[in-house]
Amino acid sequence: MTAPVIQARRDHWLRAIGYGLLAEIATIFTIIAAVLLHHYVFRRGLSDAEYAAFGAQAGAVLGVLAGTIYVYLFASLLMPRLVANHIAHGVVVAIAAIALSVGGSVAGHQGVPRAYILASLLKLAAGAFAGFRASRRTPLRV
To answer: How far apart are CA 55 and CA 32, in angstroms?
Structure first.
């Protein structure tokens, strides 16, 4: 094999990792946007404790839902670039998102909430499902 072919294969795995990180960053931005909109647009004048409670609840709900959706979307964006290993690439997208999520939680909260287990499982399922759907659409090349 030539060097460019080897580099192209490695590049897709790096893209999968990058897309996973982008999925988690998009999730974080979605949570921040929801909290800011709640604070400055929809529910102005609440106490700090009420804003903090909403932020925690929004983080828990949106972290699970948006995280799953973004992993699926970003894994789906990667799939047209692939010839093989679709499901594995989707799982790598999910693992990268999970790594950033758990790493951020440990750094910020000195622990990992139980909701992260569900979120991680859903992210893995979303990444694998995006790969499965793409592998079903891709014709076999002989």
So the answer is: 8
Place of tokens 């903090």: 52
Burial of 36 (0-12, 13-18, 19+ CB in 10 A): exposed
Show me where the domains of the chain are located: 3-137
Which three-class secondary structure state does DSSP give residue 139? coil
Is-contact 78 12, C-beta < 8 A?
A: yes
- CA triplet 18, 22, 24: central angle to 5 degrees? 120
Amino acid, res. 48: D
Instruction: Read off the pLDDT of residues 91-140 as tens digits, 9 standing for 90 and up.
Output: 999 999 999 988 888 887 777 778 888 999 999 999 999 999 988 875 55
Query: Are 13 and 95 in contact, with CB atoms under 8 Å apart?
Result: no
The tokens describing 20, both together, are: 């996973």
